[in-house]
Amino acid sequence: MKPLREKQEEERSKVDDLRGTPMSVRTLEEIFDDNHAIVSTSVGSEHYVCILSLVDKDLLGPGCSVLLNHKVHDVIGVLMDDTDPLVTVVKVEKASQETSANTVGEDGVPPPDEKTKEFIFQVHTSRRTLADDGTLDDLVTAKGDLAGADIKAICTGAGLRA
């Protein structure tokens, strides 16, 4: 029997793989039974696939759009008629004022020191062109207690605004 910690790591890895797996959209052509169907791609090729038990079978019908897991090509969901699979919009009612720096102490992880912050800034700016009027040292010293996630957010935001 595996130690509990090793088993938990293994299970966490499996969950992360599933969460990070891209999905593809296909058109349902024909349902064979509760567990199998034929789907077609946008170029017309057809594939025999499994339908996962978590899919609401009442929503399935010829011509409907379905989501397939990219690795195993199983039907994992149904897109409603008014859903555009290429566009997802999330409305934020009220943004949280809490940053990861506020929660760092809760887990017993101290914020990174200046040398570590500089390294994190270097990682997240390595493929970007930096302005001539500033340096990474300016960013490291100008900001207070930042966690690595905060630094990544700053770099990503700056890149989007550039």
Notable traits:
162 residues; alpha+beta; 34% helix; elongated
Largest beta sheet, briefly?
5 strands, antiparallel
Question: What proportion strand?
Answer: 15-25%
Number of helices: 5
Q: What number is the mean pLDDT?
A: 75
Structural class by helix and strand composition: alpha+beta
Largest sheet strand order: 3-2-1-4-5
Distance between the termini: 53 Å
Oligomer category: single chain
Shape: elongated
- The H-and-E topology, N to C, reads as HEEEEEHHHH
Helix content: 25-40%
Poorly predicted ranges? 88-92
Please tell me how large the radius of gyration is: 23 Å
Total count of strands:
5
What would you say this structure looks like, in words?
- By secondary structure, this protein is an alpha+beta fold.
- 34% of the residues lie in helices and 19% in strands.
- It has a five-stranded antiparallel beta sheet, with no helix packed on it.
- Strand 1 (23-33) and strand 2 (36-40) form a beta hairpin.
- 11% of the residues are buried.
- Mean pLDDT is 75; it is low at 88-92.
Task: Spell out the blueprint of helices and strands.
Elements: H1 4-20, E1 23-33, E2 36-40, E3 46-50, E4 65-69, E5 75-79, H2 100-104, H3 114-125, H4 136-142, H5 148-161
Helix pairs in contact: 3-4, 3-5
Structure in a nutshell:
With 162 residues, the protein is an alpha+beta fold. It has helices spanning 4-20, 100-104, 114-125, 136-142, 148-161, and strands at 23-33, 36-40, 46-50, 65-69, 75-79.
